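Q: Hi! First time doing this. I have a protein sequence and I read that you can turn it into a structure. Is that right? Here it is:
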Amino acid sequence: MPNPDGPMIADAGQQDLLVIDGRAYGSRLLVGTGKYRDFEQTRAAVQASGAQIVTVAIRRTNIGQEPGTANLLEFLPPDRYTILPNTAGCYDAASAVRTCRLAREMLDGHSLVKLEVLGDEKTLFPDIPATLAAAEELIRDGFRVMVYTNDDPVMSKRFETMGCIAVMPLAAPIGSGMGIRNPYNIRIIVENAKVPIIVDAGVGTASDAAVAMELGCDGVLMNTAIAQARDPVLMASAMRKAIEAGREAFLAGRMPRRPYGAASSPVEGVFF
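A: Yes, that's right. Below is the predicted 3D structure, encoded as structure tokens:
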């Protein structure tokens, strides 16, 4: 469940909100919960980010499957945040589907999931055929699938057409911090989409997040860029501001690029 104190879907007509699976969110920044020093630091960074959706690697993080050990949900309670289970670490469709079903069981029927099926341990690029197979089975099983994919406009549209509720193209390899390597493809994906497009993977710093939003993306999901910063909490705050600034710049509409300079004040009627 999203934060009960946050914006609800009824507000969507009056405000610029991110709508995912019928719910509206004031924040367009989604954050991961891995790679932090401990759950206390995780909580502090998430709070500083302003994020309302937090993604959790079910295969790597305890959310109740390990009784007697620290539980992430004690630090990020589901009544305040939308918990987005993800299939990080899955390299085949069967394990990804199994992980989603485990998450649904542990989270009392929760059907919103982030699907990723990796194809290579070095680059962490997605295995697209396996992702397609897993998405098809999960959708058939009633899951609401947000899908991690490459920055291919054709595949992004195919995932949308088959019923994924959000498409999450990578900006660069997971954890690389390289920023958006192919802004032209991201723009094409955005222009042709009827579902939210959320850049996932590759963001390294605040300017990368701002660029993604200026391209028209509906949001950005990040983990390593915050968790592995020298000061994760401060970086989380910076990312929050970058997302907001980039979104406002997109809505405002940038000036056209010109090959030559243009005076910023009128030249007519000048007194010499």
